[in-house]
Amino acid sequence: MAANVLPPRLKKTDSLKLDKSKSSLEILMQMGFTKQRSEKAIAATGDRGVQLASDWLLSHVNDPNLDSNEPRQYMLYLCPVGPLQKQLTVFFEKSLTICGWNGAHSYFPHITLTPFFTVEDSKVSVLKHALNKAESVLKQAPGSLQLDFFSQNNFIGLFVPDTYFRYLSEVVSQFSAELKKAGISMETHKKQLHITLAYQYAASQNDTLNKLAKEIDLGAPCQWDLRIYSRDPRFAKHEVRKVIKAYKPGLIDELELIDGDFILVDPQEYAQSKDQWYQGTSWLTGTSGMFPGPYTVRTAETWTWTLHGSLPLTDANAAIAVEANGHDLYDNLWRDHRDGLYAKVVKKNSGPEKKKEPRKLYVMRHGERIDFIFGRDWCEKCFDASGNYKRIDLNMPKTILKRNNFLDNVKDAPLTTIGQMQTLITGEFLQENGTVINHVYVSPAFRCVQTATGILKGLGVSLPLHIEPGLFEWMGWYQLGLPKWFTPQELQQHGFNVDTSYVPYISGPKLDYDETIELYYKRSGEIAKKILKKHELDGGNVLIVGHAGTLDVCTRHVLGKSPRSSSEFHDICPKVPYCGMCVCQEDMHSKKWSLQQDFVPPLTHGQNKLNTSGIIQLLKS
């Protein structure tokens, strides 16, 4: 066969097209993002594609509210497009320049059709479906919409006539009916429909604003679009400021100002500040800090809103669709600028002058466990026949989570009070030394779940735990049966931040009771490599919380080494202290991993001997 000649394919298949049909949610979860975070990103970006959603997630990696479940607020707007919209924009600009800020400048020109309503992130797709269902009604617009000018003290606006009001009410009613089928409640607008030109302004500005408003040609051609927008409810009453000059933080409490970003500020900040430095939150990253006010300028809050869908009202007598394109500044911003803005933030956060950091794998043992301190019979001492717990030593937890059978605590013991302190102290050290953790995988043992939670608390971050039974310790120690662990759902109900959508690589029932030490190394090593492979694209450091043997069995295979013998393994385990940690680092070029020097100091404390007879008996002797 001749070289460099492409041979014809005799057998062709379209099976790969199935992957292209996956939803954004499925693809994001396949990339390693949690279901909750994926849905949040899709909602925040208007389901405009996986790339934008993943960029949003990466830019919000340090957002303390990334895992909050507060739903976004949505609204239905009728927006002008074309020559009339252009005139309205000119009026807004002139009124701002000549008369200063008034309430209307917080929004772009629009007609509000509904009050704000909330939609869970998991139901965002319903909005586009409902909008598409209303398309047939949108094609029955009763001619062109002619607005009526209206003015009174402290208000200037353009009102919708009654004939069009009834038509728009029908559009909203059909949209609302579709939402109701999905359990989404939405009220109709009670006030007269209108475009607000100016309000909340000084009485002395009334004549000037009226004069400017009357320059608008209300007969100018206009296409009207029905649009769905959303906003973050946490900043509903905040002022929005656009960054006009970039700023690199000089102190730890300062906020980086990124060109193109918007800063959300509580209006009370202006009264409290004496130096023009204000506390604000970055719209692009979700992080907060102090920023220099003069480097920003107030702007409309609608620049921070998300567009979820848009359909035109069709008027057979209006032929301005082509002419209208390009006049809607807000929509153009989304199409031409906003899509790349999150990616810009991700790139900027890494810093053009900084090298990309290599990935790290942190593997650690859990904290001090109660049964190793008070003996295997500790449950018999602390629980009565009815399963009521009584703390008999201050190193025992104040409370213990309820189980169906309190004896389940025997095989799945919690941490001691000291053990919980160990996790916090270790986490705080990691935080002080700038350690960054992006993904957390945990053995299902409750002591490991508690340890991971304490570490993250000490670090000051909120990350979901991925419960992985494949990280449980050697099965040779459990010939009489596995512990009865809390399920991810039960842990979540008890207040632990657990990703209940995570599908483990190995489920509990799949663990092999006949497992040899060699197979234990193989099982743990493969799990570790799969976890690292899963996060190869999105990057970030991984924390694995397991048992004494986990530090060796999870890193041995990653480092390219063969399993240790049984005697070597049993010799290593007793030497690993509570909250002991090791770190592996990936070479960015060869992609090989190497064990790093210890950077976490040992956590040493003396033994406080158990005195069963009590202090009084000791002193009486």
From TrEMBL:
Please give the superkingdom of this protein's source: Eukaryota
Alphabetically sorted, this entry's keywords are: Cytoplasm, SH3 domain
What's a GO cellular component annotated to this UniProt protein? cytoplasm
Where is it chiefly localized? cytoplasm
Could you tell me which SMART domains the record lists for this protein? Answer: UBA (SM00165)
**Which parts of the sequence belong to the SH3 domain?**
236-301
InterPro entries per record? Cyclic_Pdiesterase, His_Pase_superF_clade-1, His_PPase_superfam, Phosphatase_SH3-domain, SH3-like_dom_sf, SH3_domain, UBA, UBA-like_sf
Q: Domain UBA spans what residues?
A: 17-60
Q: Please give one Pfam family short name.
A: His_Phos_1
Q: Where in the cell is it found?
A: Cytoplasm
Matching entries from PANTHER family are given as: UBIQUITIN-ASSOCIATED AND SH3 DOMAIN-CONTAINING BA-RELATED
- The entry's protein name is Uncharacterized protein
According to its UniProt entry, this protein's organism is: Sinanodonta woodiana (Chinese pond mussel)
